[in-house]
Amino acid sequence: MKNKKVSIIIPVFKEYNIDRFVAVLQRKVKNCNVEIVVVDGDNSGSTVSRLEKYDLKTIASEKGRGTQLKKGAEHSTGDILLFLHADTELPDNFFYTVTDTCDKISSCGAFSLKIGSRKPLYRIIELFANLRARCLRMPFGDQAIFVERETYFKSGGFSEIPIFEDVDLVEKLKKYGVKIHTLEEKITTSPRRWEDEGIFRATIRNWYLQILYFVFKIDPHYLKKFYRSQK
Question: pTM score, two decimals?
Answer without folding.
Answer: 0.94
